[in-house]
């Protein structure tokens, strides 16, 4: 069901953000994703799909329950690089995600990348990190899909 989306590796989700996601868009606030910041993010960007696997979170109720808003440049990396919190916590550093991809991606830590000192460098880095994380997350999906295909619940 996701195949066409998964092979479309060229497009970045930020293309549909206001100003193509290369300006600060507002701080992510509050603690409620579906009724608060996640919903606001959907309205702001027009996106309803997980940026990694393509699951449409507005399609059916069960998908809706899996809505998460993922940091692209992780909070820990922002702290390490002393990136301003306003950049890290801005909508422009977020993508819509399903909870599975959010979990599959949460161990990522960037290597061999240099500290961004301008907002422009921050967005360049964000784009690189997004593509890297998407590759890792989709690899986790391939492994899990192969495991699922063995019907491990049957004996
Ligand atoms: Zn996903």
Describe this protein's structure.
The protein is mainly alpha-helical and 155 residues long. It has one domain. The chain has helices at 3-6, 33-45, 61-64, 75-80, 85-88, 99-104, 119-149; strands at 67-71, 94-98. The structure holds zinc ion. Zinc ion (ZN) is lined by residues 50, 52-53, 55, 97-98, 100-101. Residues 50, 52-53, 55, 97-98, 100-101 line the site of zinc ion.
Write the layout of secondary structure elements.
Blueprint: H1 3-6, H2 33-45, H3 61-64, E1 67-71, H4 75-80, H5 85-88, E2 94-98, H6 99-104, H7 119-149
Antiparallel strand pairs: 1-2
Bound molecules: zinc ion (ZN).
The helix-strand sequence is HHHEHHEHH
How many distinct helices? 7
Summarize the biggest pleated sheet: 2 strands, antiparallel
Q: Give the cofactors and ligands.
A: zinc ion
Which structural class matches the secondary elements? mainly alpha
Can you summarize this structure?
The chain is globular.
Features:
disordered N terminus, binds zinc ion, two-stranded antiparallel sheet, globular, 2 strands, mainly alpha, 155 residues, 7 helices
């Amino acid at each position: 069901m996701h195949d066409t989306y998964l092979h479309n590796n060229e497009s970045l989700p930020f293309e549909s953000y206001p100003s193509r996601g290369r300006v600060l868009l507002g701080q992510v606030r509050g603690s409620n994703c579906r009724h608060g910041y996640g919903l606001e993010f959907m309205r702001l960007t027009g996106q309803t799909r997980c940026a990694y696997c393509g699951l449409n979170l507005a399609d059916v109720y069960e998908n809706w329950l899996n809505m998460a808003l993922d940091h692209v440049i992780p909070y820990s990396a922002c702290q390490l690089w002393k990136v301003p919190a306003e950049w890290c916590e801005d909508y422009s550093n977020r993508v819509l995600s399903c909870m599975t991809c959010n979990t599959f991606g949460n161990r990522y830590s960037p290597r061999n990348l240099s500290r961004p000192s301008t907002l422009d460098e921050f967005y360049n880095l964000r784009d690189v990190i997004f593509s890297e994380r998407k590759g890792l997350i989709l690899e986790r999906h391939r492994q899990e899909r192969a495991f699922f295909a063995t019907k491990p619940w049957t004996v």
